[in-house]
Amino acid sequence: MGCCLWIAALTAQAQALTVRNFVNPEAPLVREALAEITGENFTDVFEQDPFETPTLLGGVEVLLDGVPQRLRAVSPTRVVFIVSAAGLSPRALELRPKTGNPLTANIEVVSVWPSVFVQSMDENDESAFLPSGLWTTSGITQVTITNDPIPVGNRQQPTRVTITGTGWRYASRVRVWLNGIECNVSLAGPAIFFPGLDELVFDIPSYLANGGGYHLRLTVGDRESNYARINLGAAQ
Fold first, then answer.
1. How far apart are CA 62 and CA 67, in angstroms?
2. Quick one: fold of 115-235?
3. Which residues make up the CATH 2.60.40.10 domain(s) of the chain?
4. pLDDT > 90 fraction of the chain, expressed in percent and rounded
5. Model confidence, pTM
6. Are β-strands 150-152 and 198-203 bridged in parallel, bridged antiparallel, or unpaired?
7. How far apart are CA 28 and CA 179, in angstroms?
8. Distance between CA atoms of residues 70 and 61, nearest Å
9. Could you give the count of Cα atoms lying within 13 Å of 203 in the half-sphere of its Cβ?
């Protein structure tokens, strides 16, 4: 019995953690943005709290340089947390599972790297690579972004699109492009309701009406976001 317990503890201690950007797995980890840890046997429950983001969820804790981090979701094989702003890279990460020994890793964190929160990354899904967000032509009524064409407002009252993502709240300037055409950005900063996410509002140029599918891209300097798309319809 003692031998079996020793083997189980050794296996848990030797487990390798994978830590990556939750919104854009190809981007580095970013300050005050969502990160994902994958592994095994973190907890025995599935819990999420995207609004309060407590530091203890499902019996799990995550620490960076000894400081508890806010948790968005936990499951037996995944933990989503918010990387705190304080600290310099490399940073020491410690995951304390519900049971068993703590797990550790060293991570690198950058201050800025734009990433768009897309509805799906499955190419077979109708909503694949559409940004999570809303659009409005009236400035009052907001409609969820879907694969349906978005009406394009005129120059005096352009269609305004709000998207969520990470990695631009500390940027001095973030730019938005549709097929290489730059759009006016009216707001960029932390999201109001969802900790760990950023929000950005931009206008669709009126002359892009009836354009169909467009590649949506965000840049901060030479750092470029992941692939996203929107479908533009007729003039409003």
1. 8
2. Immunoglobulin-like (2.60.40)
3. 14-110, 115-235
4. 91
5. 0.90
6. unpaired
7. 24
8. 9
9. 14
| Residue 214, phi then psi, degrees to nearest 5 | -130, 140
**C-beta of residue 81 within 8 angstroms of C-beta of residue 72:** yes
* pLDDT at residue 10 tops 90: no
**Helix residue spans in the chain (DSSP H):** 2-14
Q: In the CATH hierarchy, which top-level class contains the domain 14-110?
A: mainly beta
Q: Are 142 and 136 in contact (CB under 8 A)?
A: yes
Residue where the block lists tokens 């503890």? 9
At residue 206, what are phi and psi to the nearest 5 degrees? Answer: -60, -30
Instruction: Give me Rg for the CA atoms of the chain.
Output: 20
CA–CA gap between residue 232 and residue 212 (Å, rounded): 5
**pLDDT for residue 69 is more than 60:** yes
* Contact status, residue 129 vs residue 181, Cβ threshold 8 Å: no
